[in-house]
Every structure is written in C-alpha cells, then in structure tokens.
Amino acid sequence: MRRPFFFLAIFISLVICAANFFISSIPYHQGHVSYFVSNTPRHFAVDGIVTSTPILKYTAFGDTYSFLVKPKLLKIGDKWFPAHGVISMTSYKDIELDYDEEIIFEAEIKAPWPGKKLEGYRAYLNRKGIFALGTIRKKDGLVSQGISGGLSLKRFAYSVKSALKERISETFSRNAGYFLNALLLGDRENISRRWKEIFANTQTIHLLAISGLHVGIISFIVLFILGAAGLPRGPKYITAIILVLFYAIMVGWMPSVARSTIMGAILMGSYVLKKNTDIYNSLGLAACLILIFQPNQLFDMGFILSFGAVLSLIYILPKINHALGIDRIDRKKKRGKFLYYFAVLFSGSLAVWLGLFPVILYSFNLISFVSLAVNILAIPCLFIIMSLSISALIFSGVLGALSGAFKESAEFFIAVLLRILDFSSKIPFAYFKSVPVSRTVIPLYYFILFMVLERDKLNRFLIHIYRKLRSIPNL
Predict the structure, then answer these.
(1) Which of 178, 274, 349, 446 could form a disulfide with 375 if both were Cys (CB 3.0 to 4.6 A apart)?
(2) Distance CA 379, CA 391 (A)
(3) What average pLDDT does range 376-382 have in this prediction?
(4) Distance of alpha carbon 211 from alpha carbon 232, whole angstroms
(5) How far, rounded to the nearest angstrom, does the alpha carbon of residue 405 sit from its chain's CA centroid?
(6) Residues facing residue 64 across a β-bridge
C-alpha cells in the first residue's frame, strides 16, 4: 500500500464516527463537574489546577481574565466533594496565575447556555471537555497554593508566550498588538466583534487562527535565520524542527497547528534523511496522531477546515492548474515567475473555496465570492507583516532604532491589510447569508465535484466497460 497512514486515518475516522453513536449516550460517572452544575448559577468554592495561561481581555464592563481550571474538589455547603472535568473561568479580579498553579477560589458556576441558538457553541465546548462556566467577581476570594507539579515543558512554553505578549504590548500600538497577538500567538479575544465579522465575511478568518500558513511562515523565518547563522544542513533542520514543535506547544497545539507542525517536521526530517515524502501519507500520519490522542477533534470545525483545506490544495489545485494552463507557464523567465506566483495564489484560493464550500455553507450559512481575490493580496501581506513584526521583536532589546523601523513598517502593512479587508467586505454582493441547508448537500456536492474533476478517467473507464461489453458474443 503506497499511502498506509492516509488510509489508516480514514479507517480511524470511520471507527470514531461509529463509536460516537454509542459513547455519546453514556453519561459521565459520578464526580464529573456536569453533575454539580445547572442552567442557574450557583456559588461554589473550588480547589483546582490552572490548565491554561490567563488571557487578559478588555471589555466595556472592565478588564477580565479567561482561563481553564481542572477541579479537584468542589465545596457545596460545608462539605468538599471530589470532582473532575474542565471549567472555563472568567475573572474580574486582577490576578497573576501560571499554568499548573493550584488555586482555591469562590465563583458562580453554571452549565453552558441552553437553547437552540447557542446549541452549536455548547457542543463546541463539550468537545473541548468544557461542561461548566464560572465567574469570579471582585468580592470573591482566591488563594494560590503554588505550582502543583515539577518541571514542565508546557509551563515553560506558556511563560515564554506570556513574555512575548508583554514584549508585543511594549513594542506595538494597542490595536496592532491585538492583531499580532492573534497572528503570532493565537490569542484573538481582544479583536473586536466588528473585525471578526469582516474577517468571517471575506473568508479570511484563517489569518487570525494560527494554521499551516502561519507555521509555514514561521518555519521559513527560522530556517532563514539558522542558515544566516551558518548552521550545516542537518543541524539546521533538526534545530528548526525542535523550535517549531516548541512554538506549536506554546500557542496551544490546536488541530491546525498540530497538523501543520507534524507535516512540517516530516518534511524537514526528509531533508535530513535525504528521502522523499508523500504528502498524502504525511497528512494521514498527522491525522492519526491527533485522532488517537484526541478522538473528539474529528467533529471539531477547526480540524475539519484545516485538513479539508490541505486536501483541497493537494487534490484540487493540480487539476485547476492543469485546466487553466497554469502548470504550463514558463517559470525560467522573471515575468513567468511573477505570473505563475499570482496565478497559483488565485488557483489555490479557488481550490480551497471549492473544497470547503459545502462545509462553510452548512456551518456558517455564508457564501463569499470576494475571498478569491482578497486572499491573493492578503497572503503576501501576511508574510510581510509576520517577518517585519518578528524582526521588530528580535531587535527591540538590542537595536532600538532598527526595531522601531521594523515596527513602523509592520504597522503600516497591518493598516493596509485591514483597509483591504474592510473595503472588500463593503463591495456589493461580496458575500451572501444563505438559509440553513441540509447535511445531505455535503456528500451530494462532493460526489458531483469528484465526477467533474475525474471526468477524463470516468470517460476512459466507461469506454473500457463499453468495449468489454461489445466483445461479449451475442450481446
């Protein structure tokens, strides 16, 4: 079998889908946090472990901190009860907490919101293992018990992330800092609702969610710096793999980050071992590793969109390039290279648009046509912004004047990108809000798309069958 991991990933996905019908009906055993909470907020005392870095969010009601807690004990009345699960906390207290820190606190805790309008978000939280939402008011008590564990790579990665957030806030203006926190670190809580809608309507929300594009740019920058430092081929790629893996842990190891990091590590490892890789196999291996450890990711929209986008690029893109004659452009000439680059940006955007169209239509009831053109400008702009902002952060503590030049240039291109997106979202008929569609649309669409893309093979197959039938006597 040429692509064992790719087909193994498909098999694992089918097994998870089948098992989900049985597992979803099995209730969590006693002690799970979902047993203690209801739709009505109740006051609890909690002894738990912080499992994420607190994220500061600026709101109209004051500054808040968001973080996750794994409860060990819940106090109801005068008694403590053993508990487990995950609680998503919002604190109005000015706190400084670290990953793995044990805290005892008071809070109002309730189940995620009921109702059909929020059922999708509630299901999203449940897939993340979150079955309770808590609020710590300023009047509530909170006492730290210190770090619960010993040395931890994850805690070190999160401390580096916190340090980078501080450096970004010190170096860049507030709005640029919000954008770069989303772009580089995956924290987009302080992006305004208006701008999130603009990114969503132009189908460029992937620019804010760390994905393969971001990891690819980070890998390119790391390899460039290591190459400029004079590292030989082997140590350069091994160091790059370690740094990219550390970056993936730092930003949270989301499905898109995990997929692109694993595939990038396999690709860079092949350069060290001087062996060719099969992109379908690499994609399948990434999916297998994620689904074995986190089966629920199969139903997560981030996982579906991430792997769907890559599948669209490796399957649909070559066929579009061939149909439009893009693969026949002479790239030996400078004009040909320039033309090929922008043609591939368009065909790549079209391939992802075609590949994800029914999923986005079903999930978001949105059809966006302007995204095809916007991504041609947005992707190069994203590369420039990331390169300039990382350069500004590197030199901020060493060469202030050079850091300032990079900072001003990065903020200029951020303003350019946001202006492009704002203008594109206001174009008449740039996007449409559709009525809810049935799930049956998804397999029907992909069947028709497959028939269109494979029409030549299908025609040859039908001709072969026809000739076989004609060769049968008395038929």
Answers:
(1) 349
(2) 18
(3) 84
(4) 28
(5) 30
(6) 57
Q: CA torsion angle for 269, 281, 313, 292 (degrees, to 10)?
A: -100
113 DSSP assignment: P
Q: What are 421-454's pLDDT values in tens digits?
A: 888 888 887 777 777 778 888 889 999 998 888 8
- Taking the C-alpha atoms of residue 34 and residue 84, their distance in angstroms, rounded to an integer, is 9
Q: Give the model's pLDDT for residue 413.
A: 92
Pick from 163, 44, 57: nearest CA to 104: 44
Q: Which of 327, 409, 426 is nearest to 370 (CA)?
A: 426
How far apart CA 219 and CA 237 sit, in angstroms, is 10
Contact 45, 104 (CB under 8 A): yes
Which residues have CB under 8 Å from 327's CB, separation 6+?
A: 318, 321
pLDDT attached to residue 69: 92
CA 310/CA 378 separation, integer angstroms: 18
Q: What is the model's pLDDT at position 94?
A: 78
- Stated pTM of the model: 0.78
Selection from 352, 263, 293 nearest residue 5 by Cα: 263
- Give the list of residues 6+ apart from residue 313 with CB closer than 8 angstroms, or none: 348, 351, 352, 355
Contact of 183 with 386, CB cutoff 8 Å: yes
Q: What is the mean pLDDT of residues 93-109?
A: 86
Give the number of other Cβ atoms within 10 Å of residue 321's Cβ. Answer: 19
212-228 helix and 301-311 helix, angle to the nearest 10 degrees: 70
Beta-sheet pairing, 86-91 with 101-110? unpaired
Decide: helix, strand or coil at residue 232: coil
Q: Give the count of beta carbons closer than 10 Å to the beta carbon of residue 197.
A: 12
